[in-house]
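I had to read the description of the data format several times before I understood it. For illustration, here is how one protein appears when written out as sequence plus structure tokens:
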Amino acid sequence: MKNLYIISLGGSLIVPKTGIDYKFLKKFRALIVKEIKKGKKFVIVTGGGNTARVYQNAAGKAARLTRDDKDWLGVHATRLNAHLIKTIFRAYAHPRINKNPRTKVDLRKHFKKGEGLMVAAGWRPGWSTDYVATILAERFKAKTLINLSNIEYVYTSDPKKNKNAKKIKEINWNSFRKIVGSKWDPGLNTPFDPVASSLAETLGLKVIITNGKDTNNLNKILNNKKFKGTTIK
């Protein structure tokens, strides 16, 4: 599908520790609506972020949790965030949230009535929303995935722990995967999920990681202008 953009929207942008960031959502909505009116279409996959971690931590204090327990809490946190996003884009979005990227249904039906946007969320344990977004990029034959989080660049190591960490503007998948490792864990906080990274490398997918709060920067990405962020390919 032409002019289609896959966006993995970090849950902590939607609901940071201070609560739902309606100011960010208002700016994000305005930008996406402007681009839809120019003929672009979007698949937005929402993460669970801080909402997921709050539930996981609380449940873990009350009882011993299995890995699946933690993952299901995360999945449902992504779905709550997805419903919020679908609601604010009601006039432009397909009414159903996609919860299964592997469904046999032709996903293009989400755009057949002139919709400009499809919202997707987590599917099942073991699948991060980065992985869901990568599967959707594969199904829509998209070449680029934009990962919006609360970091502007990927660094060689955690800059909060290592003052000598260096920002990375461009990196290949092999080198990036050495940074993030190879295993998925519920609540994992990495620039891009290791399992999704493996698939993205296989697909030859380009992933742009950037700070989603900077909507002016996102506007530059969507309009092929110079931007701040890390490109993995």
Notes: The domain at 4-232 is CATH 3.40.1160.10 (Carbamate kinase). The helical segments are 11-14, 22-36, 49-62, 67-88, 129-139, 173-180, 194-203, 215-222.
